[in-house]
Structure prediction request, 550 residues.
Amino acid sequence: MTKSSFTQNRAKYQPKLPALLKKAGLQIEAKAVVKTTKSVANSAEIKKLFPHIYGKPTLTFVKAKKASKKALNVGVVLSGGQAPGGHNVVSGILDGIKASSPKSNLIGFLGGPSGLIENKFVNLTPAFVKDYRNTGGFDIIGSGRTKLETEEQFASALSTMQAHKLDALVIVGGDDSNTNACMLAEYIAAKGSPINVIGVPKTIDGDLKNSEIGASFGFDTASKVYSELVGNICRDANSAKKYWHFIKLMGRSASHITLEVALQTQPNLTFISEEIAEKKMTLDQVVKTITDTIVRRSEMKKNFGVIVIPEGLIEFIPEVKKLIAELNDLLAGKDDFANLGMDDKLQFVNKNISASSAKVFSSLPMLIKSQLLMDRDPHGNVQVSRIETDKLLIDLVGDALRELKQAGKYKGKFSALSHFFGYEGRCASPSNFDADYCYGLGFNAAALVSVGANGYMSTLKNLAAPAEKWVPGGVPLTMMMNMEHRHGKDKPVIKKALVDLKGKPFKALAAKRNEWAVTESYQDPGAIQYWGPSAVCDATTKTLALEQKK
Ligand code: FBP
Prediction:
C-alpha cells in the first residue's frame, strides 16, 4: 500500500510499554503467580488430551539478576479475521527479540496457519517492518482460517519450525486460532522438541477474555469505528426524521461490540443475543419488541429511529439455534452438498432434520434459508456475517406493521434502511489503546519466548490503568479450554466469553434502554483521535472501564 500523510505521521507514534518491559527489556525472569491451574471446564478430558502442557502455573516477570543476551529465532502467524493492531504485535515481537540480542531473527508465515504447513514465509527485518508500524490490517503477512487437525498438518508444521531452527512460534488469533496454538504446543511437547508456542489474544469480537485476559486486541478500535458510524446515523435519523435504521454489527457470536456501541451512541433499541437466548425469545417476540417500539414512537409522531442488532442474533434465538445445530451436524463432512441445486438442498434438509426444525426452516424467507445452508468455516462456524438478519427483520417487521395498520392499531409510516458495519472496522488504524496493547502483547510474547514458556498466551493485566501500569505475564492456554460440539463431534476448544447479563456493561444498558426507546438521547462519540489530549486519545472502551471499575 502507498503511504498517506496520515500513515507517515502515525508511523512516528511510539507505543507505550508496561514499565517493567520498558525498563528491563528482555532482561527478565519468570515468576509463578498461581502454581497449578485447571481448565475452565471438562478438566479431566482436557488434562487427558493435553498431558504435556496441562496445569502449568500462571506467570509474571521480574527484572533478571543476571543479564542474558540470547539470540532468539521466532516465527509468527496471523490467524483468523483481521483486527486493528496486528502489525504492532509483529513490531513488538521484533523489538522484543532484538532487545535480547541484535542477532535475533523474526520470520512471518504467509496467509495464516497454511503458510506454516507449506513453509511459505518472509523475513521480517526491521527495514521490512518499519512501514507497517501503527497501521491497521494484516497485509504484512496475510491471514487465514486453516484449522490444524491432522497428524500430517502437525508434522509439517513441526518440520517447518525445525527447518528454520525456531525457538518459538507466536500465533496471533481468536479462540479458534489459539485452540490451534494449544494443540500445536501439545504436539511439539509430546515429540520432545524444545520449540515453544505462544498465543496472542486477537479478535474484534471481544469474546476472548476471562479472569486472566482483560480484552482481546482490536475490539477497542473496531467498536470505536462502528460507534462513530452509528453516531453519525443517529444524527442523520434525528435530522431527517423519516427513516428507521436497522444496523447489524459484526461479532460472530458474542454481542460485546453491539453492547459497547449502544453504550457509546444510545440508540432507540439494542438487541443483545445473550439476553434473547436467556429469555428464550422466539423470532416473533423479537419482531414484536421492534413493532411495539415503532408503534409507541409513531404515536409521538416520531416515525424514525435507530436499532442495533448483533451479527450473531439469529443463532441465539433458541428455535433457530436448534435448527443450526441440526444443520451443522447434518452437513458436517458432506462436501458434495454445495454442488446440489437449491431444490435438492431443501429436500435433503427437510427430510433429515426434526419436524420442529423443519417448521422453523420453512418459515424463513428463501434468502435466509440459502444463507443458512452456505459452507461453514474450517472451524465449523456458520458464517453469520453473510446472513442478512437486518433485512430479515425489516421484512418481518414490515409485515407485522401492515397487519396492525389494517386492524387500525398503527397509523405511522414505516420506511426502513438496512446497514451492516463489520469489515469497515477490522482494518482501521489502531487506536492508541490498541497500538500500545498490541505492541506490548508482542514484546511480552518475546519475553515469554525468552523464558522458555510453552503453551502460554501473552497477557497484559490492569488494562483500565495507563499503559505504563499494565502487568505483563502469561497464562497457560489449557486454562481456557473446554469441550464443545463442533462438526458433529465433541472437541477441545478455547471457551468464548459471551456478554455477562449480570455484568456492569449490560446493566448500564438495561438501566437506560426504556428511556432511550422513546427519546432521542443519541450520543455522537466522533472519530478515533490519534493526536490530542490523552483523556480523548487514550480513552478505552466503556466495556473495559465498567468491567474493571472497582
Ligand atoms: P476472528 O474471531 O477470527 O477474529 O474473526 C471475527 C470476525 O470478524 C467475525 O466478527 C465475523 O463474523 C467473521 O470474522 C467474518 O469472517 P470472514 O473474515 O471469514 O468473513
The radius of gyration is 24 Å. The chain is about 45% helix and 15% strand. The chain has two domains: 5-218+430-486, 219-426+503-547. The longest strand covers residues 73-78.
